[in-house]
């Protein structure tokens, strides 16, 4: 399989030229190692993985000897398995002015992140890689910053093919895991099954001490059934026959392993009675579809949950886009006690961009009326609109457009 370029490469190299160490976190099998090895081609850079028992034992027992054996510049895979190395990495960083010495990968587990932030503060850049976005698979790379303005969207429209629901749902059903992209239906099913059994169950046992795989599998299925909805700990706990505090802990674990993403509610002092509950999304829609037993693209596309899956897809594509871009963005959603809801609010550069997500190719333009709620805040409302299955950008008013989902 030929290498597929990752949008994160630009940011990674930019950080590597500034920090002495760069850590790429993310779920297992999303392509962290492949990307780093690709970027290291032609460099004299050592590679070692902490999955290798001998290397791991050496790292844990004698970090000094480890770095005499495996000399920087270096790629260290699965660094969370040998936190003993952090102190020694700090010492080496402080003895040199060289940048990009350590390229590290690891899953974003809570204990490791706290450890690495405490030990390597100011010396390390931390980036997150997700499974392939649809644009990466289609080899579409936008050069302009996404600000949802008409000009930005028209510029992007020039380089993509027409939005197509079958194409979009093929991606939603298949997901973006590198190994699942090329698989047929039967192989895909086996892939996700072994992904859960091999990686996920092992990681939750190591990280969270969870050994009851039957209950955990029920919990995963319950999460998949709740995708694109507000988190309901009572429902999750009942489905898996566990207590609500345990459900909270297990969900936090899935978040740390890069399996789910919790979209936090919009918080603002000027607006009263806002919800405090996050919404649940899967970082890979293919895994979610597998867990809910959607066996083909068409049954998913025509099924009752298709709107939820479309929303999940759009939210995660936005998350990927902004994680890899140069500017810091905050993603939230709005819901108040009157059940008024705005699917996504993008806060960037002092502006808020309200977005609705609709699977339809011709959604109701009146949806944007509720954006006026946000005018009570001190933040200025920027461009927004309705992200949907329409084929081309269509202005609704001076601030909002119908936005084809393939332009994000």
TrEMBL record:
Residue ranges occupied by any DUF4143 domain in the UniProt entry: 202-360
Record bears the keyword Nucleotide-binding: yes
InterPro entries on file: AAA_14, DUF4143, P-loop_NTPase, Restrct_endonuc-II-like
Domain AAA: 20-137
Molecular-function GO terms, alphabetical: ATP binding
Domain of life: Bacteria
Assigned keywords, A-Z: ATP-binding, Nucleotide-binding
Protein name: ATP-binding protein
Native source species: Gallibacter intestinalis
Lineage summary: Bacteria, Bacillati, Bacillota, Clostridia, Eubacteriales
């Amino acid at each position: 399989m030929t290498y597929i370029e990752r949008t994160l490469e630009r940011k990674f190299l930019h950080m590597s030229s500034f920090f002495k160490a760069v850590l790429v976190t993310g779920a297992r099998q999303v392509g962290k190692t492949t990307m780093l090895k690709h970027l290291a081609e032609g460099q004299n850079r050592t590679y070692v993985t902490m999955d290798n028992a001998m290397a791991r034992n050496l790292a844990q027992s004698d970090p000094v000897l480890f770095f005499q054996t495996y000399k920087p510049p270096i790629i260290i895979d699965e660094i969370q398995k040998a936190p003993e190395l952090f102190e020694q990495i700090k010492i080496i960083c402080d003895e040199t002015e060289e940048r990009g010495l350590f390229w590290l990968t690891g899953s974003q587990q809570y204990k490791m992140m706290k450890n690495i932030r405490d030990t390597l503060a100011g010396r390390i850049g931390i980036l997150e890689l997700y499974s392939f976005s649809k644009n990466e698979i289609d080899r579409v790379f936008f050069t302009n910053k996404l600000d949802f303005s008409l000009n930005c969207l028209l510029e992007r429209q020039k380089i993509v093919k027409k939005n197509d629901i079958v194409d979009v749902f093929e991606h939603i059903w298949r997901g973006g895991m590198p190994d699942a992209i090329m698989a047929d239906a039967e192989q895909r099913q086996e892939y996700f099954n072994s992904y859960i059994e091999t990686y996920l169950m092992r990681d939750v046992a190591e990280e969270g001490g969870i050994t009851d795989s039957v209950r955990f599998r029920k919990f995963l299925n319950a999460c998949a059934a709740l995708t694109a909805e507000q988190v309901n700990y009572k429902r999750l706990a009942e489905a898996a026959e566990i207590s609500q505090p345990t459900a909270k802990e297990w969900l936090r674990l899935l978040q740390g392993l890069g399996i789910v993403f919790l979209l936090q509610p919009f918080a603002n002092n000027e607006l009263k009675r806002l919800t405090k509950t996050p919404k649940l999304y899967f970082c890979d829609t293919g895994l979610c579809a597998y867990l809910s037993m959607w066996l083909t693209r068409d049954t998913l596309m025509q099924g009752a949950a298709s709107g939820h899956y479309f929303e999940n897809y759009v939210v995660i594509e936005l998350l990927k886009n902004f994680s890899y871009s140069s500017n810091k963005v905050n993603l939230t959603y709005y819901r108040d006690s009157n059940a008024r809801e705005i699917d996504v609010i993008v806060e960037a550069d002092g502006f808020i961009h309200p977005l609705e997500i609709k699977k339809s190719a011709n959604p109701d333009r009146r949806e944007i009326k509720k954006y006026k709620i946000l005018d009570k805040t001190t933040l200025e409302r920027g461009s927004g609109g309705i992200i949907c299955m329409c084929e081309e950008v269509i202005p609704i008013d001076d601030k909002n457009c119908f936005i084809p989902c393939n332009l994000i």
